[in-house]
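INFO  loader      accepted 1 record
INFO  loader      residues=177
INFO  predictor   begin
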Amino acid sequence: MRTGASARDTGRVTQTAVDLDRHLYGNSDTAIRIVEYGDFECPYCRAAAPVLKQLVDSSAGVVALVWRHFPLFTVHAFALTAALAAEASGERFWQMHDELFAHQDRLTDVDLSAYAERIGAGAVCGPSAQSFRQAVEADYKSGVALGVRGTPTLFINGDRYTGKVKLGDLRLALGLT
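INFO  predictor   done
INFO  writer      dumping tokens
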């Protein structure tokens, strides 16, 4: 299902609900689900990304990661554009996620288009990206409702995690030692 799409129903426009767990890394049937609210221009999110992926990859299918956009657009000039580009990458979201963090200091439309071409995604800028605005806004609003103020902010099975985003600390918090 494409987020942000609408359907005509007897002359009315109805909005499609946004799946907040649409960007899942790992097994969807895991016992432990970590939700990360992140910003592609945030250096702390960049540092957390490989740690969280390693945690999922080394958990024998027990841990999954969900990414939700929380662009700090008042601080990071390209955060919203990067979030929209990641959404527009569709099934290649996680590849774009990695590209954006690998090149965090280069997030112009020209750069984003080059990353999309490199990973085999379609257009990720302009009108095609704007059609995903509803999905980014839904993530952001869900974060605000949960009291998210900065990035990265993690929730483990619905509870806010306040420890360090280090593999050992996370494994200990999850009882995976």
